[in-house]
Design brief:
The chain has 230 residues and is of the alpha/beta class. It has 2 domains: 32 residues, no CATH class; 145 residues, Lumazine/riboflavin synthase (Rossmann fold, 3-Layer(aba) Sandwich). 41% of the residues lie in helices and 13% in strands. A 4-stranded parallel sheet has the order 2-1-3-4, with helices on both faces. α3 crosses α7 and α4 runs parallel beside α5. The protein starts with a helix and ends in a 17-residue tail after the last helix. The protein binds ligand DLZ. The site of ligand DLZ has 15 residues, from β3 and α5. Belongs to the DMRL synthase family. This is 6,7-dimethyl-8-ribityllumazine synthase. Catalyzes the formation of 6,7-dimethyl-8-ribityllumazine by condensation of 5-amino-6-(D-ribitylamino)uracil with 3,4-dihydroxy-2-butanone 4-phosphate. This is the penultimate step in the biosynthesis of riboflavin. One of its GO terms (molecular function) is 6,7-dimethyl-8-ribityllumazine synthase activity.
Length: 230
């Protein structure tokens, strides 16, 4: 009997410190406060807009998202012409993800650049001029025979991370680094289109920024988009 009692006590303790042993501890319950719900919302945001009901999770293949409200948010998409066929599918996915979050088409700003190497600088221009709530950088790097792939992949992704940390604007890494074009194609197609998740992730992170930092949504604030000259 004593052994059983000790075993039960140890299990309870282990579960308390190892949520992975007890996933129920992590699941949101209806009455729990939502992690994205702010203590004080900026005047521009209503409590309703930015509370995330735990019961309304949007299940997708790779990841589930809370119900997101991107109304009034302005989002940038910067994409490459290298590997345009796959990139365009990812871009369509990102637009669809944003639409699912109620981002209006007119609040999506798009820049195009030659290759993935150019993405971070173009994202920086976008962050500085277009006053966006989030930026999605999209490119496809396919490993060739030389080291070019590794040089671009690591430098570009590091630079995107730095840009997000420096500006505070969520900058999404939508660069697929693949060994074959088939791998890239598989990640840009159907319910495995990563672009859709990038669109939703952009709104989730922009919402987090708005609630934590009181910044955004930009489009609803009346700040003008700048004209793109080409
Ligand atoms: C040069 C190059 C090569 C070989 N491969 C790719 C690629 O697979 N995906 C991509 O986005 N860009 C590629 N580039 C172009 C570079 O990103 C960049 O545009 C050039 O090095 C000029 O700076």
């Amino acid at each position: 009997m004593l052994r059983i009692l000790i075993a039960l006590a140890v299990c309870g303790h282990a579960a308390a410190f190892a949520p992975s042993l007890n996933p129920g501890r992590l699941a949101l319950r209806k009455s729990q406060p939502c992690p994205l719900k702010p203590a004080h919302l900026p005047a521009i945001l209503s409590d309703k807009q930015h509370s995330v009901p735990a019961v309304a999770q949007q299940a997708t293949k790779g990841i589930s998202f809370p119900q997101l409200d991107g109304k009034g948010m302005r989002v940038g998409i910067v994409s490459t012409r290298w590997n345009a066929e796959v990139v365009n599918k990812l871009k369509d996915g990102a637009r669809a993800g944003l639409k699912e979050c109620q981002v209006e088409d007119s609040n999506v700003v798009e820049f195009e650049v030659p290759g993935s190497w150019e993405l971070p600088l173009a994202c920086r221009y976008m962050a500085q001029t277009q006053k966006v709530d989030a930026i999605i950088a999209i490119g496809v790097l396919v490993k060739g025979e030389t080291d070019h792939y590794d040089m671009i992949k690591d430098a570009a992704t590091d630079a995107l991370m730095m840009l997000g940390l420096e500006t505070g604007i969520p900058v999404l890494n939508g660069i697929l680094g693949c060994h074959t074009m088939e791998q890239a194609e598989a990640r840009a197609t159907g319910d495995n289109n990563h672009g859709v998740w990038w669109g939703k992730t952009a709104i989730e992170m922009a919402t987090l920024r708005a609630t934590q930092m009181g910044k955004g949504p930009i489009a609803a604030s009346g700040v003008e988009k700048k004209k793109v000259l080409f």
